[in-house]
Amino acid sequence: MTKSLKLAIIGGGSSYTPELIEGVLKRLDHLPVTEMHFVDIEAGQHKLDIVAALARRMVEKVGANIEINASLDRRAAIQNADFVMTQFRVGGLQARANDEQIPLKYDVIGQETTGPGGFAKALRTIPVILDICQDIEALAPDAWMLNFTNPAGVVTEAIQKYSRVKTIGLCNVPVSMQMMIAEMMSCPPDQLSLECIGLNHLVWAHRAWIGGQDVTAEVLKKVGDGQNFSMNNIFEEPWDPDFLNALGAIPCPYHRYYYQVDAMLAEEKASALEGGTRAQQVMETEAELFELYSDENLAEKPKQLESRGGAYYSDASLNLVDAIYNDRKTIHVVNVPNNGTISSLDDDAVIECSAVVGSWGVRPLAVGHLSPAITGLIHQVKAYEQLTIEAAVEGSYDKALMALASNPLVPDITRAKAILDDILRTNDDYLPYFSR
Ligand code: G6P
């Protein structure tokens, strides 16, 4: 292992980046990061410059010896990187607003990563990520790519299937679940063990343990009693206690979109009429954040960043860097190929699960028998995901239509077709390869 680490951050102009910088600065005693190269596209140059200047002030404040580079030169960023982190959004927040609004026109959930919104995001993102992978294969073939780019599970599976890059997909939802459950159980987060398995934004904690005791039923009771179990970007629709008891596993906050479709759709429609979808709120928060980041006296991550949904994302990724670099063999929840972990699913299907991570990579942990209620939903969403990846790679209208028709949130093929045509029209600039 090298004694110095270079991190390349693709989508470095994101408003989340200060959290990543803070995470690096907190871990310097065991992660010798000496270079961070932030890269973005031309349209993001202004934000990139602001983030880079803030990064330099943060580094200087703690007296760290880290070279901060920021450029539009992706190849220079990737060259000799040890870790490549991806956190970009093709089409920016306007594309997200479209993803959230189009399905609503057809009475279907409009969400950034779940349902047709996530499908549209995947179509825009997969060709770009595969292009990035070609640069990594050529310029940093030993680098680990940590993928945060949404829809993280789908994008990670596309990388696994269509490139030779060593990749691990990551999400902040499992860490957030860990924090929220620890809080409701009044125990330090590191004393709580969760056995997680499912797909990205569709992950269940099948068992929760504290000090050798199985506390799953107690946690389910507290969630059913209305204790906080949501994230900033998701309506906190109360859970039905009888349903949770019958399910017997702790759902993630995103499960509300599948299990409480009517209520979530009604909430989305009401808020779209009032002030727009989540993308509009995030646009306002971003404007405020970049104003703060531009202040030359600011040399730390501002508190206001916590109003975004991505809490703990830097902990999730830097703890993983730590586990790989320092060969910790610790447990993390990651997106990796199934390889027999869920016996009924293809080996190359990417799942989100607890796994042991060391310098050699990731080994998923099986949780044993899963009820048909759980495997049924996993299989249906995985079928949608696989068809989406093939549609994106082949530019295939037929596969895209079958992907949407297979998504559990799209109840009808007439609507699936109308939504698909709307998505293709609206995203014309980003889908030049798509053919009918
Ligand atoms: C959660 C999800 C992320 C998503 C984020 C959106 O944290 O796990 O995948 O990107 O929310 O937050 P935002 O503030 O952009 O709505």
Automatic annotation (TrEMBL):
- Entry annotated with the keyword Translocase: no
Q: Which domain of life is it from?
A: Bacteria
Molecular function (GO) terms for this protein are: hydrolase activity, hydrolyzing O-glycosyl compounds; metal ion binding; oxidoreductase activity, acting on the CH-OH group of donors, NAD or NADP as acceptor
UniProt key word DNA-binding: no
Q: What is this protein called?
A: 6-phospho-beta-glucosidase
Instruction: Please list the cofactors this protein needs.
Output: NAD(+)
Task: Tell me the ranges covered by the Glycosyl hydrolase family 4 C-terminal domain, including all copies.
Answer: 196-410
Recorded source organism is Photobacterium lutimaris
Sequence positions that bind substrate: 96, 150
Query: Which of UniProt's keywords are assigned here?
Result: Cobalt, Glycosidase, Hydrolase, Iron, Manganese, Metal-binding, NAD, Nickel
